[in-house]
Design the sequence.
């Protein structure tokens, strides 16, 4: 039950699964958030009008305000235990006391619209701002626990995932114009802009609804939802959360006043009435002075905004920005400065006739731009005397921090400039912030020097001792616990060097060693870490290149979960291929180059690996699992058969985590979704702390609560229960980390692109063993969830009245998503046999195929039973919560079967035989592989009666398309590649089926586009998105791959997204077949085509006719039911746009097959004409052509608007290149003025734009920029050479 929407709007216990519950982060959170989002969207569209119309539109404001209000809700209710009403399934008494308005994440509330001081303020005064943008500078217990993520940490990590998705959409350009990015990874459609092709009707007060927007072709609405999440964070950082909230309030108040008949605010509506004096006599002079004082009184900014909104009848793009500036005051003016006028190509400067090339800045660069900011920042610490500084003729003492920033502007990108914050954290808890300037011309800037005043983290003696440089013998270590204020203090000291490896089986953290304690010994500077733009006022990619020790400190001690994720991804790319390394190579026997992955391993493992640091929350540990797999893929192990001890460190760490948590006596145990927590008596805890001298009179939350499973002794558990004042069952979020670890293990590859056999065996064991509790009954209800509560403990609790069987908190969990994630991870496996001539049953993938097939058959059977039960009961409760297993099983099964066919000798393929019950196991395995490799198998699933759920049917269509296309890619002897055409015909016919739901129709249209653009097998749309209902995580998985995005350098995830015959043979075969089929569709019937048969030409023409008629809203054959007078697209604009984009991709100018058939006029009426099916091909009459011309003419004004906006977008992407051309021209005219700057490494000199090469398109923007600028000799020149020589010859304190 969600209290935010007014109580019991929707009781989740009445939904599927009835009598059970979904894990909070695998369906439960979606259910909670969608209720709040529906209410918020209703408020906005019904009560918030948009102002006057324009040619571009500002309907994005609705999505932006919705994102802002949802972010406030997520801050207070976005974690388990913080949402839901009392006795609800998502409610926890432990966390409910700090949720909602009581949450520390919302401590800036309440926000006062008009402060008392403002009523008497003078012109130019500042509005007090109660804001908290510097959230949690240091990690504390309030960030969450090892099994519970706080709402703020969840919001921060999701913000990173939103950024990943938007960057993936924007970094890939379209086919026709490489300078302007297009949505959906290269599909034709609208140019990326929040305001493109959006208009509004009129005031909602007059028509009762909000803005009516034109549909963004192919992914525009999804792009808007994702992009507005980033824009919201930019607005919050620049204007402040409180001022943004005031603006939203002003808009709602203005709308209400307009409904009440108000047209403007008058002075008497807001001014205070003067108190009446006892004497009613007043002189004329006093009356004159009083009137003069009233005239000098200034309206408060909030009321001024309300009045402007009333006059404009709603929000507009310009008014929204102006209101933000008024409410924020002069202090934030530098961050809100920018132009509101769209700079067009024809506009030129009056003086020299040049184009305007200055960046538009806020808000146009973020609202109407199609690129994020990319910024590299280099960090170097050196002695002050070596930095070239001098004070009064003498060399200064101490250390200085040198910072060098370098923007990266890609083709079609935008230059960003303005003030930016640099946060420097030193040893002993010192924190300082500096405001630096980022040049808008894309030039490299020097942000140093910055003097450091703290003590070094590690001394030279400690470092040499740890590396064995001073003394021999066995090393001793002593560690001490540290809190956030002692984050940088060295916790590893030694008098002797260690000989034995500290990460051996016997010493693996058992004695208290942590990787961060070891990596600190490589840092001889006072610097802990550096952050740039911590407030996210630019919202782009900022890569701070700093030592490994600094990144490790940021991971373990920065309070922002987003910063922790950035540190995780940076460690995944260490060590660099080319970098200045530290002088020591080992620390207590541990290789320095392996310390980054060891730090990631500690983050992932949590409590078993940590003793002096707080464990990370599950949301952060999920990203650590992905980063370990990326690090392992970047290691480039030569072969899957390599057995060196240091070859598979990342894989060993992932398996070690899994063994610690989910393996008991060699068997995989079921997933435990709950933990029992006991609340102690507060007075006793305080008294105990005072007696021991370890605490004070005030206790924290951790001291009051204790997990029952952490108490090993039965007597101690009995005593804890006896003394408990309360008992609760909390959700253990470890299942999130488990799914990420399984996916990460499956994604590990050797340098030759193959999967190690140990990974295959591990996945087989996961799918086969330990899932008895996941299988459940036939109808879909799960078995008993074995929470970690012993029977004796339960009896003790019941005896004390602290345990109730009917409590909703102990409802059983449905673990379907965990099984689905494990099945989907099989798509990342690339297991090849030792020899291509081996029999099919000897293929390494056979065991995985059989496991996937068993899961699929079982789920299809359960789905049929649920469907039959629903048809008889008609309760309306479906089985959508179980649909992900079947969909992921189908996706994995088809991918593995195609891979098996591609990695063995085609001559060894066997035909499908009917296997009787008496045949051998070998023949049955071959039969399963044969049936799963046929398109008919998946077609029978799609067309099964009764109809299966939409997700299962969509997965079947995706698998069927892959099989058809792969058949053309593998079978070289085929004359005509008809696989793509056959799959497109199949999906179009199902779109036209009246029984197909609108959602499934749209999915099939997107799958058609995926097949034509080479992404249907590699990206697994249905498995990643279908049935999950989560835009944030699903979009990130779909767009950035199974291992997520990278930091910008060597992308270990790119291997999983690259399609070639070595790393991804299944997707390569599918794409080869699709490429042949696409060529046939384009060229069939052309002037140079003399090979395609007439039957194939007529077939393509019939498909084109059916597609064209469907796009135009007509009924196109074949139609299942003649009762539908309109076509599938008659009232579905989104489907029409998707199919139209498909048409433009297939036939940009015209369909040659249709034109060829239209030339067969002499055959009309003959039997041959009918046998070819030419009578079903569209023909254009003179009347139709005339009507089409008139319609085109009537849309001329709209075409001009679209072309004008597209040209604006093109020009935005060309402004940076044009500015560089102007600079080069001026430099050639006046070379002497730039000599001094050019010698000094190009500081202040604009840099050229970076081409979107293969590395950039795969997310490696740092590597792409470095390679291109190094090739152009723009990577720093003599200054960088000098720095490198200093680092090599001098005693750099970072070494």
Sequence:
């Amino acid at each position: 039950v969600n209290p935010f929407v007014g109580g019991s709007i929707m009781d989740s216990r009445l939904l599927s699964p009835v009598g059970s519950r979904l894990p909070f982060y695998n369906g439960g959170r979606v259910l909670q958030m969608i209720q709040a989002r529906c209410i918020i969207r209703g408020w906005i569209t019904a009560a918030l009008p948009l102002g006057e119309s324009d040619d571009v539109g500002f309907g994005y404001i609705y999505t932006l305000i919705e994102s802002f209000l949802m972010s406030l809700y997520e801050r207070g209710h976005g974690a388990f235990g913080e949402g839901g009403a009392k006795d609800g399934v998502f409610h926890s008494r432990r966390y409910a006391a700090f949720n909602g308005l009581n949450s520390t994440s919302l401590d800036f509330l309440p926000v006062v619209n008009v402060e008392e001081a403002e009523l008497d303020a003078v012109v130019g005064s500042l509005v007090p701002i109660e804001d908290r943008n510097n959230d949690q500078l240091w990690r504390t217990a309030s960030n969450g626990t090892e099994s519970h993520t706080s709402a703020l940490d969840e919001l921060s990590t999701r913000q990173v995932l939103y950024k990943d998705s938007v960057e993936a959409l924007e970094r890939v350009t379209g086919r026709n114009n490489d300078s302007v990015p297009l949505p959906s990874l290269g599909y034709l459609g609208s140019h990326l802009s929040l305001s493109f092709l959006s208009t509004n009707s009129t005031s909602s007060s007059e028509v009762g609804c909000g803005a009516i927007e034109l549909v963004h072709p192919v992914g525009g609405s999804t792009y808007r939802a994702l992009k507005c999440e980033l824009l919201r964070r930019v607005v919050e950082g620049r204007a402040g959360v409180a001022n943004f909230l005031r603006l939203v309030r002003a808009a709602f108040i203005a709308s209400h006043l307009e409904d009440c008949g108000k047209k403007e605010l008058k002075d008497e509506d807001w001014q205070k009435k003067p108190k009446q004096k006892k004497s009613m006599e007043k002189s004329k002079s006093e009356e004159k002075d009083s009137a003069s004082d009233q005239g000098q009184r200034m309206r408060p900014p909030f009321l001024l905004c309300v009045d402007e909104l009333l006059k404009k009848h709603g929000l507009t793009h310009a008014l929204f920005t102006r209101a933000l500036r008024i409410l924020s005051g002069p202090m934030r003016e530098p961050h809100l400065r920018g132009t509101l006028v769209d700079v067009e190509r024809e506009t030129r400067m009056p003086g020299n006739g040049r184009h305007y090339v200055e960046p538009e800045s806020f808000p146009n660069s973020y609202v109407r731009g199609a690129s994020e900011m990319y910024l590299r920042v280099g960090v170097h610490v050196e002695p002050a005397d070596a930095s070239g500084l001098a004070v009064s003729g003498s060399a200064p003492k101490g250390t200085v921090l040198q910072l060098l920033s370098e923007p990266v502007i890609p083709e079609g990108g935008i230059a960003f400039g303005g003030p930016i914050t640099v946060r420097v954290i030193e040893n002993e808890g010192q924190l300082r912030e500096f405001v630096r300037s980022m040049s808008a011309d894309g030039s490299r800037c020097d942000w140093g020097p910055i003097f450091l005043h703290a003590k070094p983290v590690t001394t030279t003696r400690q470092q040499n001792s740890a590396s064995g440089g001073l003394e021999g013998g066995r090393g001793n270590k002593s560690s001490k616990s540290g809190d956030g204020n002692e984050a940088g203090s060295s916790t590893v000291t030694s008098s002797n060097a260690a000989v034995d490896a500290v990460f051996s089986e016997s010493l693996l953290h058992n004695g208290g060693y942590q990787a961060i304690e070891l990596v600190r010994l490589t840092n001889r500077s006072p610097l802990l870490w550096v952050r740039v733009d911590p407030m996210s006022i630019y919202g782009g990619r900022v890569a701070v290149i700093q030592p490994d020790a600094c990144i490790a400190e940021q991971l373990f001690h920065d309070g922002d979960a987003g910063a922790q994720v950035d540190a995780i991804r940076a460690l995944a790319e260490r060590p660099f291929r080319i970098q200045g390394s530290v002088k020591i190579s080992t620390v207590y026997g541990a290789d320095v180059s392996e310390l980054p992955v060891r730090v990631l391993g500690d983050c992932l493992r949590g409590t078993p690996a940590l003793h002096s640091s707080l464990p990370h929350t599950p949301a952060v540990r999920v990203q650590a699992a992905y980063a370990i797999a990326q690090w392992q893929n970047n290691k480039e192990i030569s072969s899957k058969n390599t057995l060196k001890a240091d070859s598979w460190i990342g894989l060993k760490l992932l398996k070690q985590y899994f063994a610690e948590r989910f393996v008991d006596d060699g068997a995989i145990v079921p997933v435990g979704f709950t933990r029992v927590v006991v609340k102690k008596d507060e007075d006793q805890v305080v008294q105990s702390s005072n007696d021991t001298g370890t605490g004070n009179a005030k206790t924290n939350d951790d001291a009051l609560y204790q997990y029952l499973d952490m108490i090993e002794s039965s007597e101690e558990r009995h005593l804890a229960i006896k003394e408990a004042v309360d008992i609760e069952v909390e959700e253990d979020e470890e299942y999130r980390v488990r799914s990420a670890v399984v996916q990460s293990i499956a994604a590990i590859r050797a340098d030759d692109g193959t999967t190690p056999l140990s990974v295959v065996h591990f996945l087989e064991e996961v799918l086969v063993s330990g899932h008895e509790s996941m299988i459940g009954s036939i109808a879909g209800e799960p078995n008993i969830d074995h929470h970690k509560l012993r029977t004796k403990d339960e009896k003790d609790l019941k005896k004390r009245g602290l345990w109730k069987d009917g409590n909703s908190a102990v409802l059983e969990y449905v673990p379907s998503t965990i099984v689905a994630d494990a099945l989907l991870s099989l798509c990342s496996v690339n297991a090849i046999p030792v020899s291509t001539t081996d029999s099919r049953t000897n293929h390494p993938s056979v065991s995985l195929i059989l496991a996937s097939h068993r899961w699929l058959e079982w789920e299809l059977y359960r789905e049929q039973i649920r469907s039959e039960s629903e048809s008889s009961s008609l309760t309306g409760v479906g089985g959508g919560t179980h649909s992900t297993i079947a969909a992921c099983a189908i996706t994995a099964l088809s991918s593995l079967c195609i891979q098996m066919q591609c990695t063995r000798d085609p001559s060894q393929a066997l035909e499908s035989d009917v296997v009787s019950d008496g045949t051998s196991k070998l023949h049955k395995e071959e039969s399963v592989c044969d049936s799963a490799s046929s398109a008919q198998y998946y077609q029978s699933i799609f067309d099964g009666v009764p109809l299966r759920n939409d997700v299962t049917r969509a997965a079947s269509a995706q698998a069927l398309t892959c099989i058809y296309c792969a058949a053309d890619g593998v079978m070289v002897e085929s004359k005509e590649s008809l696989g793509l055409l056959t799959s497109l015909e199949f999906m179009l016919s199902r779109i036209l089926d009246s029984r197909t739901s609108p959602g499934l129709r749209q999915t099939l249209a997107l799958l058609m586009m995926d097949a034509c653009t080479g992404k249907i097998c590699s990206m697994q749309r249905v498995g990643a998105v279908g049935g999950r209902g989560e835009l944030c995580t699903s979009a990130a998985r779909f767009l950035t791959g199974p291992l997520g995005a990278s930091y910008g350098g060597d992308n270990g995830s790119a291997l999983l997204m690259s399609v070639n015959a070595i790393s991804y043979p299944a997707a390569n075969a599918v794409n080869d077949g699709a490429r042949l089929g696409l060529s046939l569709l384009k060229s069939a019937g052309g002037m140079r085509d003399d090979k395609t048969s007439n039957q194939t030409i007529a077939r393509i023409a019939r498909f084109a006719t059916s597609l064209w008629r469907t796009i135009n809203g007509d009924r196109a054959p074949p139609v299942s039911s003649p009762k539908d007078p309109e076509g599938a697209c008659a009232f579905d604009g989104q489907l029409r746009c998707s199919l139209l984009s498909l048409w433009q991709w297939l036939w940009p100018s015209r369909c040659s097959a249709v034109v060829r058939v239209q030339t067969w006029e002499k055959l009309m009426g003959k039997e041959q004409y009918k046998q070819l099916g030419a009578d079903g091909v569209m023909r254009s009459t003179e009347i139709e052509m005339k009507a089409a011309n008139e319609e085109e003419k009537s849309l001329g004004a709209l075409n001009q608007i679209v072309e004008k906006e597209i040209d604006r977008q093109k020009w935005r992407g060309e402004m940076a290149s044009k500015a560089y051309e102007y600079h080069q021209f001026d430099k050639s005219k006046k070379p002497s003025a730039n000599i001094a700057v050019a010698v000094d490494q190009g500081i202040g000199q604009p840099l050229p734009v970076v081409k979107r090469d293969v590395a950039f398109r795969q997310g490696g923007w740092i590597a792409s920029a470095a390679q291109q600028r190094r090739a152009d000799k723009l990577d720093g020149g003599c200054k960088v050479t000098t720095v490198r020589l200093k680092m090599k010859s001098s005693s750099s304190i970072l070494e």
Notes: The mean pLDDT is 78. The longest strand covers residues 374-383.
